[in-house]
Amino acid sequence: MGLQNAINGIPLEWYLIVAAALFSIGLYGVLARKNAVAMLMGVELMLNSVNLNLLAFWRYLAPESAAGLAFAAFVFVVAAAETAVGLALIIAVYRSLKSVDPETLTQLKL
Amino acid sequence: MTLQQVIFIILAIAVIGSALFVVTTSNLFRGALMLIVAFFGVAGFYVLLDNGLFAVAQVMIYIGAISILIIFSVMLTRGMQAMIPRNAQAGSVAIAAALLFLILLLAFGPFRLVVDLSGVPILSALFRTESARVLGGVPWQFANREVPETYIADFGRALVDLNQFLLPFLLVAFLVDAVLAGAIYIARQRKPAEVIAEREAIAKEEAEELAALQPQPNAPTLPQGAIASTADH
Amino acid sequence: MDAITNLLKIISDFVAELIRSVLGFSPLLAELVTMGIAAVVLITFAALSFMGLTYVERKVVARIQDRLGPNQAGPFGLLQPLADGIKMFTKEDTTPATADRWVYNAAPLVIAVFALATYAVIPFAPGVVGTNLNVGVFYVLAIGSGSIVAILMAGWGSNNKYALLGAFRTVAQLIGYEVPMLLNVLTVVLVTGSMSLIDIINHQTLADGNPGIPHILMLPLPALVFLISGIAETGRSPFDLLEAESEIVAGFHTEYSGMKFALFFLGEYVNALAVSFVFSTLFLGGYAGPILPPYVWILLKAALVFFVFMWLRGTLPRVRIDQMHALNWKFLVPMSTVNLVLVMLVLKLFPTSESAAQAFGGLLVTPWVQTIILAAVNLGVLFTALTLAARAARRFRQAEEEMIMRRRAANLAAAKA
Q1: Which residue has the higher pLDDT, B99 or C208?
Q2: Please, which residues have CB within 8 angstroms of residue C325's CB and are 6 or more apart in sequence?
Q3: Could you read off the pLDDT tens digit of each residue along chain A, which spans 110 residues?
Q4: Where does residue C229 fall: left (phi above 0), alpha (psi -120 to 50 degrees), or beta otherwise?
Q5: pLDDT the model gives residue C247
Q6: Predicted pLDDT of residue B80
Q7: Does residue A40 form part of some domain?
Q8: Has residue C393 been placed in a domain?
Q9: How many whole angstroms separate alpha carbon C145 and alpha carbon C131?
Q10: Inter-chain residue contact C146 with B59, CB threshold 8 Å
């Protein structure tokens, strides 16, 4: 189980497994839902799993470098910005089309 | 079983359980609350990773801001809570997600599958190196180091250092500026004349579309096929 | 003499020793039990002070308003909190029929939990602190922003349009006033160089070669803005349009009665007391002080700040919601941002340590001179902002009067014709 390289008894692989599970669940949430806000919730789960992965690698492989922290911080900021813009768009679309089902938004189709 | 292992298992169950609830529920408000539970769990993971700064940042950004945004939009788009939350491709997506999880588990998990390719004619010629015959289990180069005491100050200094992360920092700040400007523009206070003009423009557009669909009263009657084709647009 | 000063530390050491040796627990279990006892003590302290604070508040506000306050229940009305508690317990505990039961019942608990969680990082004496996080002040802000979710839960769970509207307005106010709070706490962290509350207190005492200047002398403007934001964050008067009787029924806690409403009430007072503690830690020097024991000092300072809260409540009228948002976004946030940049400049141009002077090439000054320069810069920013705001307000009022005059003239002309 790689326990010889565990910190506080937790090997790195445990964090990676949890992050992989979160990512798959978030992927299902994005692709299999009918409501745009629910899809965004799936995207948030995926971003969280990415951050968890980054910080686990930072802690176990290179704790004195700031690269892992900087990358994770940028993911935080970009996630917040993307959520704000995405939700503003969803609310604007809902106001004019009264629907948040992505399958009904076909105006740009030829 | 050390204390940290027990805490890890409890947090993992909480996070994965609430994530499953979020993606399968049709009650979006409860889904948003369970998303908050998942965020708290991930913050707990960050504490286990000796990173108090990011744990607190996670609570402040995700729970204090993003979750509130999500709850607001759930409340403002209320009419569309479908009975069945899944769409047509949910089955295949579930299989794909499970497959992805299994591949990641195999690739980065604690298992190692040693496959002897020496006998197979073509593959043994393609994969010559030792590691290619082992599926899964990356040999990480572990650090076994402690997190330095001044990791917050070092991180801060790295963000403004010309040789390190100043450029991405400025780019991200630029992105946040753009989002802020967009939000202010969308939420700007419109004068009453502007609001009336907007509404009139929308009404005129709708009336035009409606008129385009109606057959003209003094136009010659078209055959059935032609009317059906205009209605398809 | 030394025993009285270190009383809290002696008691906590004694209890820890008791658990470890007499009861024979393993070190892990002993630590867990000690932390549990500390948590229970903190929660009890917060709850008891809540009871005392409701009484003190009613008395003080009553005296400001030229009346007596509660004096019927017990001598000088001292048993009034007890009477209030009995009333809360015996009130009927209703639940709206179509409300979302889990969400509705969980909201007061979540608010109470978040309000009490702030006390975990406040240092009551040297070495007597729940936990010495190296991101202590950031933790306090994050907990404050986390409690906003509970208000949305309360508004939604009541299944009541007015409660929902009240919750929206409350959340808008709370999110808005987080920004100046954050900016001003950032200014204090900039001056101190650390986010840990114990380091901030040490920077204001004579420990470790620090000059021993309370931050309120160095940074009067952040102190003022933090005070205003703190009042707005806890929903007290003059920012209490969210729960006032003349507003949307009672805001987000319309549908709550009995014990659940008591928990909301507790959350508000405990939050206000926590803000007082944090203010005294950040700006007044926490538990530092000459003669009295440290835990007495911090209680005195927090009581002083809470008295200022009560004073403002009894004196100022309520602000309208658009006035409140205008005050925040058009006045406090630009002022705090400009102040932060100027404080940064002053710290670089007039450093107090040799290494900083060599690194950037500023003018080396003593700590008191730097304090005076910082205070002057802060007050300059404050007066500039106030002048600009006054001018803008005068222009706005003149424009309004002009419009009224024009409309009156038009009406007269129309009436004559």
Answers
A1: B99
A2: C172, C173, C176
A3: 445 567 777 888 889 999 999 999 999 999 998 888 999 999 999 999 999 999 999 998 888 888 889 999 999 999 999 999 999 888 888 887 777 788 877 777 77
A4: alpha
A5: 59
A6: 53
A7: yes
A8: no
A9: 20
A10: yes
Q: Give the distance from residue A15's alpha carbon to the nearest chain B alpha carbon, in angstroms.
A: 9
Q: Residue C411, class by beta-carbon neighbours within 10 Å (0-12 exposed, 13-18 middle, 19+ buried)?
A: exposed
ipTM for this prediction:
0.91
Quick: pLDDT tens for C319-358. 888 888 999 999 999 999 999 999 999 988 888 877 777 7
Helix-helix angle C367-416:C220-233, to 10 degrees: 50
Asked if residue B189 has pLDDT above 80, the reply is no
Phi, psi of B142 (to 5 degrees): -75, 155
Chains A, C in contact, 3 or more Cβ pairs below 8 Å: no
pLDDT tens string C381-417? 999 999 999 999 899 889 989 988 988 888 888 888 7
Instruction: Pick A55's closest partner by Cβ from B49, B90, B109.
Output: B49
Inter-chain touch C135–B3, beta carbons under 8 Å: no
CA–CA gap between residue C379 and residue B147 (Å, rounded): 41
Note whether C164 contacts B75, CB cutoff 8 Å: yes
CB contact under 8 Å between A61 and B5, yes or no, is no
In a domain, A14, yes or no: yes
Task: Tell me if A110 is assigned to some domain.
Answer: no
The list of chain C residues with pLDDT below 70 reads: 1, 24-25, 242-251, 253
Where residue A44 sits, what CATH number does that domain have? 1.10.287.3510
Q: Is residue C30 part of a domain?
A: no
- Report how many Cβ contacts below 8 Å link chain B to chain C: 58
pTM: 0.86
Closest C-alpha among C216, C147, C220, C227 to residue C181: C227
Q: Are A55 and B54 in contact (CB under 8 A)?
A: yes
**Is chain C touching chain B, with at least 3 CB–CB pairs below 8 Å?**
yes
Which percentage of chain C shows pLDDT scores above 90? 32
Judge whether C232 lies within some domain. Answer: yes
Q: Do the beta carbons of residue B18 and residue B34 sit within 8 Å?
A: yes
Inspect the interface and report whether the beta carbons of B56 and C139 lie closer than 8 Å.
yes
Residue with tokens 């290494």: C355
Lowest average pLDDT, out of B88-97, B146-155, C22-31, C73-82, goes to C22-31
Establish if A29 belongs to a structural domain.
yes
Residue C331 in domain: no
- Kindly list the distances between the CA atom of residue C85 and the CA atoms of B17, C2, C42, C77, in Å, as whole numbers in the listed order: 39, 39, 20, 14
Domain count within chain C? 1
Measure B107 CA to nearest chain C CA, in Å.
Answer: 36
- Chain C residues with a Cβ under 8 Å from any Cβ in chain B: 28, 100, 102-103, 133-135, 138-139, 141-143, 145-146, 148-149, 152-153, 156, 164, 168, 171, 175, 178, 195
3-state SS of chain A? CCHHHCECCECHHHHHHHHHHHHHHHHHHHHCECCHHHHHHHHHHHHHHHHHHHHHHHHHHCCCCCHHHHHHHHHHHHHHHHHHHHHHHHHHHHHHHCCCCHHHCCCCCC
Contact by Cβ (8 Å): A5, A28? no
Q: Name the DSSP class of B135.
A: E
pLDDT of residue B184 exceeding 50, the answer is yes
